[in-house]
């Protein structure tokens, strides 16, 4: 039989009754994970609470702020299967973590240092619902399963980045072109890597040796190369970067492109101007050489249409070599076909894609070595794609194998990662078992 309030007051006095009904009831914080690995001295703290020393199997709660010291780190395993390494000298908060309700969400904050992240069920259901905020950006996976590193660059990172940028040397693995204008859907895949995945291109994205670039309907991409060459890949086209060498030690400068299908508008850079034989555009019908020029080329694999709007170009196939002077066009059928060369009609229809010489991008600035500065957010995608959104709401995708950064000015850049960095010394696999997990400088 329930005790009546009047009985309670009579038995224990009014003061006890008032104390009973007035005491607030505090709900225990929500358990969101546990520590699966720990090294060194690390602590977690609830708002207004006392710090808790973290050891293996220690529970982690929603609202926890985790701090690590020098040469120390912890791996947090969350209830949805996600894993996060809080790296040395880091400050990291779990603002909200809900893996149980219908609308699963994770709101995490990196205040200082860095974290390695492997997503779980929250990102699998809705990748955009898993977010790591920093002072300059918000980082979200764009794949159901993603592994990525988020770092806030400190003074040491800045100094090492500047040193790396100053000592940078071009190699065959360096960026060979960047997108300076784009419309629609254009993608690239590296044919030299059998495990490579197709990656979407966007403004500022890099292109590498052995990349095959494909454009969809109503799409194009304008590329700038370090020697100043500019190429517009037209819609419904495929272009292979067979070989591009420029200022590489012990190698001759060379440009070898292959237009498999579709159209290409090209403006020669210093490589072709200094050595005409160093440039070649291959097609299924003929190879196109230049004498320092601007050209338009299109092919369906059998027919070849080619025109020269600046300088002099020539066609070479099994029938011989044929000059196409400035202001002239040609049509060729088959590898044995003799080109029909004629003055380009004044009213000849022009491609809708921009001619490359209309773009005024300075190659020196486009390919200037950049390093992250203190306070920048640096993101490296090791598996899957990751989105970096700056505080202006502008977004850039860091594709698998790339490193990107966002600074306080809202500028976002991306670059291919070196897979043998301190993040991943073995060059493969996960970094969650690294015994070091030290923060290193980063060059973008």
UniProtKB/TrEMBL annotation:
<feature type="compositionally biased region" description="Polar residues">
    <location>
        <begin position="379"/>
        <end position="389"/>
    </location>
</feature>
<protein>
    <recommendedName>
        <fullName>FecR protein domain-containing protein</fullName>
    </recommendedName>
</protein>
<dbReference type="InterPro" id="IPR006860">
    <property type="entry name" value="FecR"/>
</dbReference>
<feature type="domain" description="FecR protein">
    <location>
        <begin position="64"/>
        <end position="152"/>
    </location>
</feature>
<feature type="region of interest" description="Disordered">
    <location>
        <begin position="321"/>
        <end position="444"/>
    </location>
</feature>
<feature type="compositionally biased region" description="Polar residues">
    <location>
        <begin position="398"/>
        <end position="431"/>
    </location>
</feature>
<feature type="domain" description="FecR protein">
    <location>
        <begin position="212"/>
        <end position="300"/>
    </location>
</feature>
<dbReference type="Pfam" id="PF04773">
    <property type="entry name" value="FecR"/>
</dbReference>
<feature type="compositionally biased region" description="Pro residues">
    <location>
        <begin position="342"/>
        <end position="353"/>
    </location>
</feature>
<feature type="compositionally biased region" description="Polar residues">
    <location>
        <begin position="327"/>
        <end position="338"/>
    </location>
</feature>
<feature type="compositionally biased region" description="Basic and acidic residues">
    <location>
        <begin position="354"/>
        <end position="373"/>
    </location>
</feature>
């Amino acid at each position: 039989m329930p005790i009546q309030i009047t009985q309670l007051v009579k038995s224990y006095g009014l003061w006890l009754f008032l104390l009973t009904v007035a005491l607030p009831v505090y709900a225990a914080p929500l358990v969101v994970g546990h520590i699966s690995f720990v090294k060194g001295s690390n602590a977690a703290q609830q708002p207004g609470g006392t710090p808790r020393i973290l050891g293996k199997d220690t529970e982690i709660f929603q609202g926890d702020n985790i701090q690590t010291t020098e040469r120390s780190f912890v791996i947090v395993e969350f209830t949805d299967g996600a894993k996060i390494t809080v790296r040395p000298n880091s400050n990291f908060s779990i603002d909200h973590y809900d893996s149980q309700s219908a609308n699963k969400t994770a709101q995490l904050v990196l205040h200082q240092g860095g974290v390695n992240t492997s997503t779980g069920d929250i990102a699998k259901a809705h990748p955009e619902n898993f977010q790591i905020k920093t002072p300059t950006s918000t980082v979200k996976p764009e794949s159901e399963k993603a592994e990525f590193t988020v770092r806030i660059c400190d003074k040491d990172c800045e100094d090492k980045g500047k040193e790396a940028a100053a000592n940078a040397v071009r190699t065959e693995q360096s960026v060979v072109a960047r997108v300076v204008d784009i419309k629609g859907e254009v993608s690239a895949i590296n044919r030299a890597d059998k495990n490579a995945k197709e990656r979407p291109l966007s403004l500022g994205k890099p292109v590498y040796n052995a990349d095959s670039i494909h454009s969809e309907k109503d799409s194009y991409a304008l590329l700038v190369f370090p020697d100043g060459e500019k190429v517009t890949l037209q819609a419904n086209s495929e272009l292979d970067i067979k070989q591009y060498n420029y200022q590489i030690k012990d190698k001759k400068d060379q440009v070898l492109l292959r237009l498999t299908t579709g159209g290409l508008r090209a403006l020669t850079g210093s490589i072709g101007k200094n050595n005409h034989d160093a440039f070649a555009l291959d097609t299924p019908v003929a190879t196109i050489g230049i004498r320092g020029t601007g050209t338009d080329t299109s092919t369906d694999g059998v027919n070849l249409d080619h025109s020269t709007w600046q300088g002099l170009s020539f066609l070479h196939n099994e029938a011989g070599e044929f000059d196409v002077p400035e202001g002239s066009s040609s049509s060729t059928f088959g590898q044995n076909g003799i080109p029909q060369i004629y003055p380009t009609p004044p009213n000849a229809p022009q491609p809708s894609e921009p001619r490359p010489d209309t773009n005024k991008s300075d190659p020196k600035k486009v390919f200037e070595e950049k390093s992250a500065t203190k306070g920048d957010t640096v993101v490296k995608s090791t598996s899957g794609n990751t989105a970096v959104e700056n505080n202006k709401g502008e977004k850039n995708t860091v594709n698998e194998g790339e490193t990107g950064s966002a600074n306080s000015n809202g500028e976002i850049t991306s670059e291919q990662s070196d897979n043998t960095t301190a993040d991943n010394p073995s060059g493969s696999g996960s970094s969650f078992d690294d015994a070091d997990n030290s923060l290193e400088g980063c060059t973008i």
